[in-house]
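Worked example 3 (structure in, sequence out).
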C-alpha cells in the first residue's frame, strides 16, 4: 500500500497567535516555532477523528496533558492490515504507523481547538501487529515519530514505546500519544 500522501497542501486549523515564543533559561534565550507550518512538501491533510469502536473517546484532556486513544492504520481510502514479517514489509509498517499518527493528530483536535496549542509531544506509544519472530517494531514506529518531528519540530521529539502484538481486527498498527497543551 502507498504511504499517506505528502504532496499537496496542509489543512490543519491554526490559531492566530504569533508563530514564535521566547524560551528563557538563565543566560540564554531562543526563538522556536510553536507550530511548524509545513509547506507543500509535507502535504498532510487531517481526517476527521475516527469514530470509537467501543465505549471510549478519541482523546481525553486532564490539565495540560492530552492522551489519545489508540488510533488504527487507516488514512483516506487506504487501510493497512496484516502482520509485520508475514503480510507486511517494513516500509508498509512504517506507512501504517504514520497513518495511525495522523489519526492521533485528528484525535487531539477533539479536545483542543488548534494544533498550535501543542507545546510538546511527550510520548508516542505504538502497537505493531507482528509475527513473534519479527523484531522491527521500533523501526516501524519511525513512521509515527518522524511525522511528529516533521509537524512540530523539536517540540515533536518524544519518549516512545514500540511493541509487537496482535492488534485487534488485524490492523497493522495502533498508536496513541500524550501531548502537553496550552489554553
Amino acid at each position: 500500500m502507498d504511504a499517506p500522501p505528502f504532496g499537496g497542501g496542509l489543512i490543519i486549523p491554526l490559531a492566530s497567535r504569533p508563530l514564535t515564543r521566547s524560551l528563557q533559561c538563565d543566560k540564554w534565550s531562543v526563538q522556536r516555532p510553536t507550530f511548524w507550518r509545513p509547506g507543500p512538501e509535507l502535504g498532510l491533510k487531517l481526517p476527521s477523528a475516527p469514530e470509537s469502536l467501543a465505549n471510549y473517546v478519541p482523546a481525553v484532556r486532564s490539565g495540560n496533558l492530552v492522551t489519545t486513544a489508540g488510533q488504527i492504520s487507516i488514512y483516506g481510502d487506504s487501510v493497512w492490515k496484516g502482520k509485520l514479517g508475514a503480510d507486511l514489509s517494513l516500509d508498509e509498517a512504517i506507512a501504517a504507523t504514520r497513518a495511525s499518527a495522523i489519526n492521533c493528530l485528528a484525535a487531539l483536535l477533539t479536545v483542543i481547538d488548534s494544533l498550535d496549542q501543542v507545546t510538546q509531544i511527550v510520548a508516542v506509544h505504538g502497537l505493531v501487529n507482528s509475527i513473534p519472530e519479527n523484531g522491527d517494531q521500533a523501526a516501524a514506529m519511525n513512521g509515527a515519530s518522524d511525522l511528529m518531528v516533521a509537524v512540530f519540530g523539536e517540540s515533536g521529539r518524544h519518549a516512545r514505546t514500540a511493541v509487537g502484538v496482535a492488534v485487534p481486527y488485524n490492523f497493522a498498527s495502533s498508536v496513541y500519544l500524550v501531548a502537553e497543551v496550552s489554553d
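Notes: The two ends are 38 Å apart (CA to CA). The chain has a mean pLDDT of 81.
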